[in-house]
Amino acid sequence: MRGTRKYQHVIETPDPGKWELAGYEESLPISEKSNPMTRELDKADPSQLVQLLRDCDAEIFQEEDENLIHYHRLYSESVLKTMGDVAKRVQEVLKNPDDSLVVLSGCGTSGRLALLLANSFNGLLKGLHKTPCYCYIMSGGDRSIVTSQESSEDNPQLGAQELEKVCEGKKNVLFIGISCGLSAPFIAGQLDFCMRHLDVYLPVLVGFNPVSMARNERIEGWHSSFRQVAERLQTLHDSQKGFILNPAVGPEGVSGSSRMKGGSATKILLETLLLVAHKAESNVPVTEKCLLEILRTYERAHKVTYSQSKKIAALMKQTATSLQKKGHLYILGWGTLGLVGIMDAVECVPTYQADWRDVRGFITGGYHSIENKEGDLSSLGPQFSISHEDFVKNVLPSVSETDTVLLIFTLDDDLNQIEKLVALVKEKTSNIQVICHATAGQYLPNSLKKTIPSIIGLTWPILFLEYEGAFIQKFQRELSTKWILDTVTSGAYTLRGKIFRNFMVDFKINNSKLFHRATSVLQRLTGQSHQRCTEVLLQSIYGEQTLSEQIRNTTIAGHVEAAASQDKVLPVAIVSLLRSCTIQDSRSRINSSLSIRSAIESSMNVPGRKRGAEDSESR
Ligand code: F1P
């Protein structure tokens, strides 16, 4: 442990990683760097995978190290101070709920978290018979709750329009824009809109890169880059007319997968800040101590969660086996834990090119429990059926021994109903697993215990804190569930050969960020120039060896649209570059390989191949 640590930590956070050293993958922002800890993620077995991802998650709580690059961390004084400053401004909104609003906005996982958080704090207010004053925006609208709609993320104008719409008639709006990578144009558009109307709006940006690492290419069809917007926002900091909350939490265990640490850190940071603001309303002043007290409960949650590592590894192994046999993972959650399950399932589609049926989430009460703005979306198609009734009616009849069913609940939920569902599922598959949250002193009834072969049991301490105490426990359970599911699904897809080293190599290129990520992964794995990598990526997207002038002159948005109808775009480009073979040859090689990973691995060892940058740097 380092001597510089200021706080007594609940968990043992790892020592600073090599990624903090100057020059480490210098051209990449932290959120896109490859984590040195997980370089051999693809070779790990389930227990090692859990351990590696556990250590990556622990980096969220690591402190700033003055001997290294001066990255601000969650516990840095400047970050705690900004959290306190924003909390005080939230308090002002809470005092005048009629013409004020707190808007939380994000894309993908960040948008789903905006929904979860807005509902939590509206629930907190309603419980006190106060007016709800939170609202959420997610790019792509409510359909993005259950499906991935990554392309709307690229539209800054749309972001601004949506914001204007939800704030109509309000005199005081605190806007919280979440973009883990400081990258989403949708959020840039909203921040820019706020900065043009500072009489009404207070813009707050949440993400996990320094401003100097925010995305720097000019947004297509717009006037600025994300970085320029963030820099403008930074200048408002001293006058308290705008804030940026961007502690470094380290690179993701799976490079670029911001749903993981980025999502967890968003939840930790914002829930802490908002809870303190609500406490402060009851005349408790906003202090660093209040913030630290809550942050520590999340550290404790990390410890409690990963005390179940063995069982998490078993669930991961079971899930990987199901997926390998063309089976499924069905996640059935109660209350907000159901939403956490849906969040995790949805992201498997863009991150691993999974079919939407492979991993699915269901929630008790369906849309009614989610409390989304657009109400019941189930008429939009089978993908949008998310209630337990939908599962029983439409999915259960075809469940078989190859499928895994995971139930997630707390001991305060309807245990009779759970027991009945367990019995129904057991008629179809013996692969039934449970994540069960209890408060100290509560026990799972024997009747349930006997029927479920494998239980991940998490017991949370009783928190003797006024009304908010119950919310802290809810937040801990949600985060703990998120950590387990992130680890299980990322690990299962790693075991299925969807990861090479720690790079996602088979993701959907459905927005500009992902287009750039694809080129960057190509460069890192092959050591070839940016220009050459872009060329081969385009060959793979269009399935043409010779690129026409028209293709070369197409915008990135156009390439993204073309990529939408193709599968395995990135793996085909990687193998084609490594083997100097045609796109067609590469595709047939991949199609006849055991996995994407094995196709890349065998291409790495082709005689005479030029060594890649990654090879020489660290292997
Ligand atoms: C937004 C996001 C992620 C998702 C995927 C694509 O990222 O939709 O939530 O996991 O990586 O991007 P960000 O704007 O929060 O960085």
Can you put this structure into words, describing what you see?
Beta-D-fructose 1-phosphate binds at residues 109-110, 153, 179-181, 347, 513. By secondary structure, the chain is α/β, with parallel strands linked by helices. 47% of the residues lie in helices and 10% in strands. The chain has helices spanning 46-58, 77-95, 109-127, 143-146, 156-166, 185-195, 226-234, 261-281, 288-306, 309-324, 336-352, 367-370, 388-395, 415-426, 446-451, 468-495, 512-526, 530-542, 549-552, 556-563, 569-579, 583-591, 596-604, 613-618; strands spanning 100-106, 134-138, 172-178, 201-206, 243-245, 329-333, 359-363, 404-410, 432-439, 454-460, 499-500, 503-504. The strands form 3 sheets. A 5-stranded parallel β-sheet has the order 2-1-3-4-5, sandwiched between helices. α7 (226-234) links the parallel β4 (201-206) and β5 (243-245). α21 runs parallel beside α23 (596-604). It is globular. Residues 106-110, 150, 153, 178-181, 183-184, 258-259, 262, 347 line the site of 1-O-phosphono-beta-D-fructopyranose.
